[in-house]
Amino acid sequence: MTSSRPVIIICETGFRWTAAWRRCDTQAKSRVETVNSLTACAERLVSAPASFVIVEASGSNIPALLDWLTWQYFERREAAVVIVGDAILNEWRYELMERGAIVVATNERQLPAVCAAARRHVSSWRPN
After folding, report:
1. What are 55's strand-pairing partners?
2. CB-based contact 79:54 (threshold 8 Å)
3. Alpha helix (H) ranges present in 25-108?
4. pLDDT band at 87; cut points 50, 70, 90
5. CA of 9: how far to CAs of 6, 18, 42, 56, 111, in Å?
6. Are 34 and 78 in contact (CB under 8 A)?
7. Any bridge partners for residue 20, and if so which?
């Protein structure tokens, strides 16, 4: 494991999921950071590779997201990645999970399960 404390990284173009996250995770003990691109997310993971990552997906970014997930799966096994978005993700659910996503959430009502997964992931971290 790494010695850099994990953070919650939300990668989205707006603030829909960040706002929903803050409403859902009232017991947050980890820092929440928002980035607006997969590139920025990957850069942030360099300094905190054991982070819990929530990535917003849309029909237009799924091909790039699949490539990014494959890379993350092999390069950053300490990170946990959740994909969030609209119902279009149901068509891609299994492929996203095959590439390493631990959860695919298609509406904000599914965030309590994502919050619980984040708490488990962050609490399991131990520095070297």
Report:
1. 11, 83
2. no
3. 38-47, 62-75, 93-98
4. very high
5. 9, 9, 10, 11, 14
6. no
7. none
- Provide the residue type at 72 as one letter: Q
In the chain, helix, strand, coil percent, each to 5?
45, 20, 35
Cβ contacts of 4 within 8 Å, gap of 6 or more: 47, 48, 49, 50
Unique residue bearing structure tokens 């929530």: 54
Question: How high is the pLDDT of residue 24?
Answer: 84
* Pairing label, strands 80-85, 101-105: parallel
Q: Which residues contact 52 (CB under 8 A, 6 or more apart)?
A: 6, 7, 8, 9, 30, 79, 80, 82, 117, 118, 121, 122
Q: Which residues contact 8 (CB under 8 A, 6 or more apart)?
A: 21, 28, 30, 31, 32, 33, 51, 52, 54, 118, 122
Q: What is the pLDDT of residues 107-123, one digit of tens each?
A: 999 999 999 999 899 88
Query: Using CA atoms, how far apart are residues 125 and 4, in angstroms rounded to an integer?
Result: 10
